[in-house]
Design goal:
With 423 residues, the chain is mainly β. It has helices at 7-16, 18-22, 363-373, 381-384, 395-405, and strands at 27-35, 38-44, 46-48, 54-62, 68-69, 84-88, 130-131, 148-151, 158-161, 181-189, 196-200, 206-207, 210-211, 214-216, 228-229, 232-234, 236-240, 251-253, 259-260, 277-281, 295-300, 308-313, 319-324, 332-338, 344-350. 37% of the residues are buried.
Amino acid sequence: MVKRLGPTVSTLILLLGANTWSQERPTFSFLATAKNGEAINPPSASIDAVPGDIITVEAYVRCWSNGRSTAVPIGQPSTPTLAGYNFAIDYASLFNEVSGNVLPVNYANTTALCQCELPAQTCPDNFANAFVTTTRSDFVFAGRIAPVGVATRRCNYRISSAHCSATCITLQSQCPPRTPFYCGTVRLQVSGDAAGTFNVCFDSGAEAGNPLTRLIAPRVPPQEPPRIEPLDLECLTINVPVDNCPGTLVGSDPPSQSIDAREPSLLDDATPIGTDVVTLTFPEGDYSCLKQSSFSTDVTPPGDAPFVEAVAANPNHTTVEVFLSGPLPAGKWTRITHEDGTPSSVRLGYLPLDVNGDSMSNAADLLRLMDCLESKASCTLSEADLDRSGSIGVMDIARGVDLHNGAGAFAPWGGASLPPSPP
């Protein structure tokens, strides 16, 4: 719906002057200009992305002649020209409250090694991913001598132009039109565990009394370079789907790489039984976004794998219960993989009678079971409670013989083995 102004307001606009009413303040903006090397036309202040995407972000400035120079006393007219600029990224804005980050590409191997330029710390520069292309026709000082500086050894990356003499003062930027002028580029990468909204903003703080993000008017000796004020700062919004629920598996119950040695069915009923609920552990966070499609399963040797039928995840808890469509298949490794973000897996083995966990079922396992009964070895229920009675006892010796030789509904497991665990 469009509101129409009445005669009184229209008259007021004419009296004040349209330029006064619609005047836009000097503005720095972050815009996305490419994703994974593909140009975004026109550049956008909001972009959708997924983990792993590389976003080319460019800084632009516009409308600086609508501000006023701090060198001009208040009350006197001022139409400042631009003689320099500085901007920095708000480091905190590269993270969000959901998960992950959108740090500069190769940040871990460069800036992170500097620990944000603590005293006596050195690290490689990251100029491949933070730079100014001064040859561009839309560069704010195009055609003029304007040295630039890029600092990538600080967490907040800083890009600036030198405080120029009259030889590099650029033309005035009137608004309207709202022509943006290019000032610098930073390439950001969406982390593998990223989810939610990231608002990448300029750093509005100050250092040694000077704002980290500022526009600079021509120097008026002997004063310090004056600023152009007021200055608006516009952020870039990067939206990563929350239904992608990232996180790295750090544990499970049963434990990853463990082997279940218990009977695969009842002695008189060949219907498979066994583990069909697995508890997965993630780092601290909210994993209520996990769902069935967040996981995949496969088995080694290849065959039919039980799939994830349901997920029970509690907000702000690190454990998640995964319900499988059937029990883990005997004689195989089952791998459960969390697919969101950077994939991570647990691997659960099932080999009846493999009491000692060496991926082979043989007489040595019966000897190990004897040690368990005589307290010469510490054994878990999944290793030694072969008849699934809930305790380890002499009946498990008899069940071990049945499993080894193949009694009742049991196939003979003596001599069976598991292949190496999948990666």
